Structures are given as C-alpha cells and as structure tokens.
Amino acid sequence: MRKMIIPLILFSLIAFGCVLNFDQNDTSSDAPRPLEPQVPVTPDVPGEGAEGDLPHTESTPMEEGKFAESSNAFAFDIYNRVAEADQDQNVFFSPYSIYTALGMVYGGARRATEEQMRKALYFDADQTAQHTAFMDMSKRLNEIGKRDKAQLHVANGAFQAKMYEDLLLPEYQDLLEKYYSSEMYSLDFGKARETAAYINEWVLERTNKRIKDLVNEQHIRDSNHGMILVNAIFFKANWLKQFNPKSTEIMSFYPNPEKETPVNMMYARGTYAYTEVADMQVIELPYDEEELSMLVFLPIAADQVPKLNNDILYEALKTLDKQDVRLWMPSFTLELELDDVAQMLKHMGMEDAFDEVKADFSGIRDPRSEAGLYIRDILHKAFIEVNEEGTEAAAATGVVMATRAMAMPDEEKPIIFRADHPFAYMIVHRPSQTILFMGRLSDPPIVE
Question: What's the whole-model pTM score?
C-alpha cells in the first residue's frame, strides 16, 4: 500500500510566533479540546526504545553559553540572508521564536532528517540536552515576565488534527509538554475556517492582540489533517531612562544617498555603553528590566550595509564602555512577515525535512501508519513599536533607550550617535547573551 505523505507547515510568529503545521484532512465535528497529558513511555528493554523515542542513550547538560552561541549563529544566518537579498527593505523577526519552533520539530526528526537539522541549526546531537536548554531558557524569560519591570511571555501550542490524533506518539506529546510547556489541542481540520479562527485567537491572546491572522483556511486545508506547532513571544518594556517627548522633532532619515524620509527623531544625551566594531558604532540601550537591553549597530559609512555575526556581537559586548553620548534615533512601528524561511533553511542544508519522500518525522507519529509528515512551509510574522517610553514587540521588538540631557564640561566632546541612515538592532537577554529579536531599519514609515 502506498504511504500517504502529509505536509507540515511551520509558521514562525513574532509576537512573536512560530507555527509548525503538519497537513491532513479532518472530518469530525467535535469542538476543539485539549489533549490529555501523556505519561512518558519506558522501553521494555533498556537501551532499546521504540522508533519514536529520542535517539540517544545518555544526556549531559549543554555547556553554559552554548545555547546562546548556537541560537545566535542561526539568527545571523537568517538575518544576513534576508538583509543581502534586499538591502532597501526593513527587517524584523524573532530568531528565538523560529528557533524554538524548529526545536519542537527536531524532537520528532529521525535519521538523515535529524542530522541535517542538527547541522543547519547548530543543534546538539544529544536531543535531551538540546530540549532541556530550550526549557531552561523559556523558564528564565518567563520569570522576567513575572516581575513588574517588563512584560515578557513565551508560549507554545500544538494543534493536532482530530482525525489522526491517535497516531500522535505519546512520547512526542510528553516531550512537548515537558520541555516546551506546550498546550495540546485536538481540532477538526475538516472545518478549515473554524480551525484557523481558533488558532488565530490563541495567538492573539498570547501576543497582546498584536499578531493577527497568522493562519488562514488554505493553510489548514493544505495541511491535509496534520499538526500545527506554534511558538509565540511577546515583549513590552520601558527604557531605563526614557526619551523626553518634547525633544522629539521631525528630521530626515536617509534610506540611501538619493532618498530622504521625514521621521520622528528622538533625542537624548547621557551616559551610555558605547563602542566601535567592524566599522560600526554600537550603543546599548538598557530597559528598566536589567536583564534586557537593545543593541544598535550603526554603520559609520551611510551607504554601508550592517552585516553581523557572533564574532562582531561578542566583540561589541566585550568592549562596550560608558561614554557621554548625544543620541538621535527614530521612533517607528513595523509589522512584517518574513518570507522564504523554508527556502533559506533548504539552502542551509535542511533539505529532507521539506521533501515528501525523504522527510522522516517518525518520532512524531506512529511510524507504522501511512500518514507521514513533511514540512510544507514556514511563515513568520512580527510586530515592533519603538517610542520615547520603550518598546513593544509581538515576536519582535526594537527599542532605544536614552538618558536625559546632562550638563557636561565644555572641554569634553560627547560621542555623536545619529541614527539617520540604515542600522541594525537587536533585543538581547544579557545574562545569556541570547538574541530574542533583531532587525534592520532601512526605510522607516513616513511621518505625515
């Protein structure tokens, strides 16, 4: 009998949100309901697990800093590919959101599919160690959200087609619940409109209403009764020292030497952590929540495209030094979709996961079934608002912090940081140095 292949659609939300969608057609009419928590399956013979079990025998914790190094390397791979494809477009996404969604997928990948994902995404060969690192990072971020100084929430959801819910391996459901605190739902994918609406409402509630219409009816139909995995991250915080709105003026921003755009330019003077690396000025704008800050990378040459990598980031973090700075930076609001993520991942070596024949996700569904899975597509949505008070991002946030003007001796010349041409920015969890959101402002919205 010919094996049925079911597409898997991965949507990366930035509210962030990332959704992974496995295709199939469901015809039941029951209302959406949460799946019952699963108990881990223990193999009868030690060391001889079922096909769905995680492919390792012993786990050791990931080295401190390795998760951030791997996650950031992935972030720069995506950023540089997008930035080079169109140097004039704005960029904003949550690498952490996409990375987490792919981490959930990695838990069900086997053989060549798993190996390609490991290499392309810099994952640990020990799956338990990798998933534990995701769990620990998510806990750290959600702990920040429990404090009063910032809103930061990370949520994962798995939406399984009711028609094939019996094929979902208990050990995979347990993995999602244990390491990703994933909410599990069984939905009637045969009712595409209702299913899309249910998932979109789930995303809305977890992104402070910022990410809308993540999926549509066609995505549900194309999934052919599969599964949708979603990661959503929402962030909102005030600058440690807010910009004075009275200092904001309409000024010019230059997307390129031939174009001039009026923007609301915020201004502040004060002591900031500042450095110069790779022909770029770098400034750190801390939030009121001390574990989070925004780094802004401004090319010294106005026509230079800001390229980034781990070496540049760590050099900047290592050499930041308190300086007297006069800072100009535009306020802006962006709502963007990241296109061609699937194509980028293929170019990075993750090919089999998208192939109907070669994809091996036998760690998700019973490998004896005829309903195989493959990734059909990856979508990513992000929202960011940066203003005098701080930053709000659904799956993505860009913020600038400024200190109020201070009287300085005449003989001391302050650093001039005038962000009036394209620059890169990222929101970083400082203790781990993990990039949560990043982007490039190339052409800000025009101020009327």
Answer: 0.86
Same domain as 306, residue 219: no
129 is a domain residue:
yes
103: domain range?
4-237+335-383
* Same domain for 261 and 222: no
Same domain, 94 and 227: yes
Start-to-end Cα distance in the chain: 63
Burial tier of 64 (Cβ tally within 10 Å: 0-12, 13-18, 19+) = exposed
As given in the structure block, the two tokens for residue 75 are 């972030």
Give yes or no: residues 133 and 202 share one domain. Answer: yes
pLDDT one digit per residue (tens) for the chain, 448 residues: 444 444 444 444 322 333 445 444 333 445 555 544 433 332 222 233 334 455 543 445 666 589 999 999 999 999 999 998 888 999 999 999 999 999 999 999 999 999 999 999 999 999 999 999 999 999 999 999 999 899 999 999 998 889 889 999 999 999 999 999 999 999 999 999 999 999 999 999 999 999 899 888 998 888 888 888 888 999 999 999 899 999 999 999 999 989 999 999 999 999 999 999 999 999 999 999 999 999 999 999 998 888 899 999 999 999 999 999 999 999 999 999 888 888 999 999 999 999 888 999 999 988 777 777 888 877 788 999 999 999 987 542 211 111 122 344 445 689 999 999 999 999 999 999 999 999 999 999 988 7
CA neighbor of 337 nearest in space, from 7, 10, 11:
11
Q: Are residues 202 and 226 in the same domain?
A: yes
Rounded Cα distance, 175 and 36, in Å: 14
Say if residue 313 is in the same domain as residue 271: yes
219, 316: one domain: no
β-bridge partners, 230: 19, 157
- The answer as to whether 448 is a domain residue is no
Is there a single domain that holds both residue 162 and residue 266?
A: no
308 half-sphere exposure, CB direction, 13 A CA radius: 29
